[in-house]
C-alpha cells in the first residue's frame, strides 16, 4: 500500500480522471451549442483547420478559406481533447451537448477468444478493448413488424437510435434498439469482435465474446433467444487515422513518408475512411500531428490489412506514452491474428522496417530469400531495391502482404517466386486508434479553488467549479500546472459515459491506473470495485476482493477520498492501492506531504503493507 514510511510509497505529481464517451456528437469549444444526435452534422478536431466564429468555414494552412457544405467541419485543437474509444468521434471540452448512451464497455483480454462469465477480464497494463452498443431486444417483445429478433438484427435501418432513454433501459419493459453501425459492417466500420450479453434489472449477468475475423453480420454466430430481461450486442470499433490503398501513392511519395511527415491528407473527408478501395483516396488524420501533445492520450493502435472490407491480418499495439512512430515495436504488441507472434522475438517490428519493406512485422532473415519469414509487410512506393520475388512489384505499389495462416511464413515459394497463396496481397492497410478524454486534473500542491478540496471539486454540480477549461497551461500533466475540470462533470447524466479511468502521473508518465464501467452512472457511484471495476495496473485487484473502501467519498471521517482500500488494522498494516488524502491524519503516511495529494502503491502490481502509527 502507499501508507507508512515505506520508500516504495509515492505521491503522484498529477491525478487525472478520464472518460470514454460514445455517439456521433461533437462539442464546439467555448460554446454551449447542442449538436443533434444521430444526424449527419459532426464537428471534428485534431487537424490544422480552424472554425471561424459564426459559421462552418475552414481555413487550411497555406490554402485559401473555403466552406464545406454538408461536411464535417474541423476544429483546431486548443484544449484537452481525447480520442473516444469505440468510435470515430473526438470530443473537446466546452459544450454540454448530449451524447447518446450505450451499453457498458467491457475489456477483452488479448484476443477474440470467448470470455468466461464472472469477474472482468485481465488485460496487459496500459491496454484495453472497449464495447459499443448496437442492438438490444427485451423479454416479452413479440417483435412486431419482424419475423424474429434475428430478422430485426439483420434488417437494415436504425431503431430508436437517437434516444438516450431507450439505449440505457435494460429492464424487461424496455424498447428494442438497433444502430445503423450494423449496416456499415465491413464497409466504413472495422469490427473486431461481438459481445453477446444478457441483463437482469439493468445488471449484466452473463456474456460471450466472438471473433468477427472474416465474418459478416449474418454469420458471426447462430443467434438464439434468451429468457433474460434484455439481450444486447456490443461491438469493438476503432477510429481510422491512416489508410493506404493498393496502387495509390500518397502526396508525400510513400506511406512511410506520409505517416512520419507532418502533412495530413483528406483529413476532413470522412468518405475516405472506408475499409475498401472506394474511394481511391489515401487518408491521414490530423490526430497524428498532435499525438505527443499534452492531453492527447492514445491508448492503443491497431495495424490491419483488408480485402474489400474484410479484415485479413492485424496486430494491436499499446500506445501509452508513445510517439506516432515508437508505438510500432515488438515490446508494445498486445494482440494479433498470429499465434506465434506473442512468443517470438521479431527481427523487425517498426515503421521504417528493414529499409526495403515498411510497417514491417518480420520474424527472421536467412541466407537467401527462401529463408525469410514474415507476418505483415508494406511494399511501399518509391522503393528501388527489390531483391526477392515478393518485392518485385507483384502488383502496383504500394501493396500489402501478409501471412494467410496463423504463423509467420516465407513470402517466396522458390527463389524469386512469390508465394501468392501463403503470403497474399491485401488492397487496403489501416492504422486505427483508441484513447481517453480527461475531465479533471489536479497536480500536487495546486489550488482547487473555488472548491475546498479535490473531492468537492469533483462532486459539485455547480458550473463555477468548471475551472481552467480554456487555459492552455492547464492542459499538461506536469507538476505545478493549474487544476482543471470540464463541464462534462457538471452535466454527467447528459452524456454517454461508458468508462472512467483514474490515472496517477509521475514525471509525465502514467504510473498507475484504474478503469471502471460507468454505464448509467452518476458522477460518484461509478467508483465501485465490487460491481464496476473493469481492470487496473494491479494484478491483485479484481471484483472478487474484499474491500474496506472503494468509493469516491471513501473514509469521509478521515478525509480519505477516491479510496481503494483492502483493510485497516493499524497504520503499520493498512493495505490498499490508492487514496487522495485531504487532511493530515494520525498515520505517518497521510502527514508526509502537504494535502491534498494522491498516494498509490508503486510495488509494480500489488497493494502495499505499511509501517507507522495507528490512526
Q: Could you please describe the fold and organization of this structure?
A:
- By secondary structure, this protein is mainly β.
- Strands 2, 15, 16, 17, 18, 19, 27, 28, 29, 30 and 31 form an eleven-stranded antiparallel sheet that branches.
- It contains five helices and 36 strands.
- Residues 1-11, 22-128, 222-226 and 611-615 have low confidence and may be disordered.
- The longest helix has 6 residues, at 149-154.
- 4% of the residues lie in helices and 32% in strands.
Number of helices: 5
Structural class: mainly beta
Reported for the largest beta sheet, the result is: 11 strands, antiparallel
Helix content: under 10%
* Rg calc: 25 Å
Write down how many β-strands occur, each being a DSSP E stretch of 2 or more residues.
Answer: 36
Arithmetic mean pLDDT:
77
Query: Which regions are unreliable across 5 or more consecutive residues at pLDDT < 50?
Result: 1-11, 22-128, 222-226, 611-615
Roughly what fraction of the amino acids lie in strands? Answer: 25-35%
Shape descriptor: globular
What distance separates the N and C termini? Answer: 16 Å
Per-chain topology:
Elements: E1 9-11, E2 14-21, E3 43-47, E4 50-51, E5 57-59, E6 66-67, E7 73-76, E8 82-83, E9 90-91, E10 132-138, H1 149-154, H2 164-168, E11 177-178, E12 191-200, E13 203-211, E14 230-237, E15 239-245, H3 255-260, E16 283-284, E17 297-307, E18 310-318, E19 333-336, E20 348-350, E21 358-364, E22 373-379, E23 399-402, E24 412-414, E25 417-418, E26 425-426, E27 428-443, H4 454-459, E28 484-485, H5 487-490, E29 497-506, E30 509-517, E31 533-536, E32 549-551, E33 560-567, E34 575-581, E35 597-601, E36 608-609
Parallel strand pairs: 3-7
Antiparallel strand pairs: 1-35, 2-27, 2-29, 4-5, 5-6, 8-9, 10-11, 10-14, 12-13, 12-14, 15-16, 15-27, 17-18, 17-27, 18-19, 20-21, 21-22, 22-23, 23-26, 24-25, 27-28, 29-30, 30-31, 32-33, 33-34, 34-35, 34-36
Amino acid at each position: 500500500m502507499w501508507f507508512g514510511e515505506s520508500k516504495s510509497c509515492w505521491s503522484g505529481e498529477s491525478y487525472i480522471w478520464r472518460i470514454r464517451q460514445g455517439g456521433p456528437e461533437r462539442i464546439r469549444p467555448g460554446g454551449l451549442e447542442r449538436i443533434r444526435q444521430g444526424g449527419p452534422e459532426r464537428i471534428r478536431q485534431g487537424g490544422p483547420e480552424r472554425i471561424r466564429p459564426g459559421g462552418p468555414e475552414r481555413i487550411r494552412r497555406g490554402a485559401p478559406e473555403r466552406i464545406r457544405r454538408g461536411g464535417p467541419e474541423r476544429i483546431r485543437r486548443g484544449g484537452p481533447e481525447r480520442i473516444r474509444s469505440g468510435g470515430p468521434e473526438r470530443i473537446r471540452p466546452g459544450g454540454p451537448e448530449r451524447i447518446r448512451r450505450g451499453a457498458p464497455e467491457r475489456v477483452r483480454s488479448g484476443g477474440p477468444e470467448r470470455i468466461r462469465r464472472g469477474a472482468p477480464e485481465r488485460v496487459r497494463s496500459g491496454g484495453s478493448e472497449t464495447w459499443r452498443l448496437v442492438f438490444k431486444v427485451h423479454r416479452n417483445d413479440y417483435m412486431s413488424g419482424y419475423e424474429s429478433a434475428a430478422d430485426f438484427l439483420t434488417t437494415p435501418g436504425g431503431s430508436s437510435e437517437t434516444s438516450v432513454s431507450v439505449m440505457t433501459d435494460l429492464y424487461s419493459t424496455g424498447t428494442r434498439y438497433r444502430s445503423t453501425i450494423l449496416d456499415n459492417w465491413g464497409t466504413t466500420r472495422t469490427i473486431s469482435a461481438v459481445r453477446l450479453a444478457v441483463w437482469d434489472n439493468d445488471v449484466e449477468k452473463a456474456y460471450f465474446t466472438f471473433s468477427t475475423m472474416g465474418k459478416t453480420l449474418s454469420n458471426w454466430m447462430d443467434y438464439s433467444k434468451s429468457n433474460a430481461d434484455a439481450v444486447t450486442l456490443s461491438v469493438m470499433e476503432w477510429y481510422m487515422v491512416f489508410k493506404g490503398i493498393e496502387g495509390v501513392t500518397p502526396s508525400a511519395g510513400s506511406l512511410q513518408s506520409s505517416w512520419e511527415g507532418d502533412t495530413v491528407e483528406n483529413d476532413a473527408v470522412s468518405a475516405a475512411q472506408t475499409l475498401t478501395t472506394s474511394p481511391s483516396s489515401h487518408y491521414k488524420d490530423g490526430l497524428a500531428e498532435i499525438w505527443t501533445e499534452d492531453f492527447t492520450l492514445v491508448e492503443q493502435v491497431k495495424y490491419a490489412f483488408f480485402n474489400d472490407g474484410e479484415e485479413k491480418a492485424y496486430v494491436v499495439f499499446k500506445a501509452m506514452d508513445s510517439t506516432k512512430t515508437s508505438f510500432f515495436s515488438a515490446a508494445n504488441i498486445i494482440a494479433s491474428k498470429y499465434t506465434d507472434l506473442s512468443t517470438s522475438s521479431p527481427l523487425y517490428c517498426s515503421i521504417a522496417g528493414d529499409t526495403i519493406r515498411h510497417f514491417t512485422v518480420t520474424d527472421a532473415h536467412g541466407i537467401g530469400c527462401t529463408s525469410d519469414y514474415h507476418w505483415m509487410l508494406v511494399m511501399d512506393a518509391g522503393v528501388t531495391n527489390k531483391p526477392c520475388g515478393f518485392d518485385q512489384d507483384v502488383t502496383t505499389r504500394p501493396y500489402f502482404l501478409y501471412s494467410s495462416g496463423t504463423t509467420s511464413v516465407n513470402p517466396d515459394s522458390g527463389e524469386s517466386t512469390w508465394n501468392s497463396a501463403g503470403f497474399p496481397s491485401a488492397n487496403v492497410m489501416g492504422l486505427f486508434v483508441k484513447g481517453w478524454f480527461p475531465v479533471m486534473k489536479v497536480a500536487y500542491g495546486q489550488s482547487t479553488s473555488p472548491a475546498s478540496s479535490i473531492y468537492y471539486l469533483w462532486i459539485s454540480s455547480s458550473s463555477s467549479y468548471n475551472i481552467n477549461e480554456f487555459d492552455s497551461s492547464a492542459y499538461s500533466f506536469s507538476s505545478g500546472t493549474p487544476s482543471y475540470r470540464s463541464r462534462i462533470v457538471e452535466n454527467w447524466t447528459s452524456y454517454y459515459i461508458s468508462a472512467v479511468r483514474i490515472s496517477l502521473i509521475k514525471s509525465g508518465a502514467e504510473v498507475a491506473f484504474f478503469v471502471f464501467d460507468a454505464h448509467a452512472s452518476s458522477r460518484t457511484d461509478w467508483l465501485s470495485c465490487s460491481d464496476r471495476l473493469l481492470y487496473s495496473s494491479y494484478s491483485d485487484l479484481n471484483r472478487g476482493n474484499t474491500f474496506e473502501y472503494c468509493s469516491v467519498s471513501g473514509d469521509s471521517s478521515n478525509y480519505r477520498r477516491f479510496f481503494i482500500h483492502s483493510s485497516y488494522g493499524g497504520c503499520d498494516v493498512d493495505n490498499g492501492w490508492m487514496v487522495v488524502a485531504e487532511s493530515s491524519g494520525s498515520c505517518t503516511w497521510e502527514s508526509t506531504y502537504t494535502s491534498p495529494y494522491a498516494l498509490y502503491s508503486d510495488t509494480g502490481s500489488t497493494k502495499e503493507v505499511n509501517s507507522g502509527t495507528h490512526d
